[in-house]
Amino acid sequence: MKPHPLEFRQRIVAAVDQQEHTIEEVAALFGVSERYVYQLLKSRRETGDLSPLPQGGGAPLKLDEAKLLELAREATGARVEPLPAYSPDFNPKEGCISKVKAELKRVNANTVRKLRNALRRAYAKVALADIRGWFRHCGYSVP
Length: 143
Description:
Elements: H1 6-17, H2 23-30, H3 34-47, H4 65-76, H5 92-107, H6 112-124, H7 128-137
Helix pairs in contact: 2-3, 5-6, 5-7
């Protein structure tokens, strides 16, 4: 849907500025929503302009990823480590899911209430040491 022309927007705001009609009446006169009128007034107040914002569909932004990475490393002092190839064995969340599932099987909850309580207890049993271990197992360096 195309944005309304600038002249149309200016006429709406001018009608509000004349204070002869309420915002609801101005919206009805121009066939727009009250929210749209409020948005126009806000845009004028914040930017001093009623022009529509540019829409997508243009050429995609081109980023030099290598340059961006270098700038980020310089700014933060970070280092880049290659990630291992994907495998469920090298995904830290698999360890967590496995621990939670084992606890749920142990409890054998048979109602929604029991299941919710069992989930809370199962996630509460996941310790920081477990999380570090899962990340180390997957080849990530962890402090």
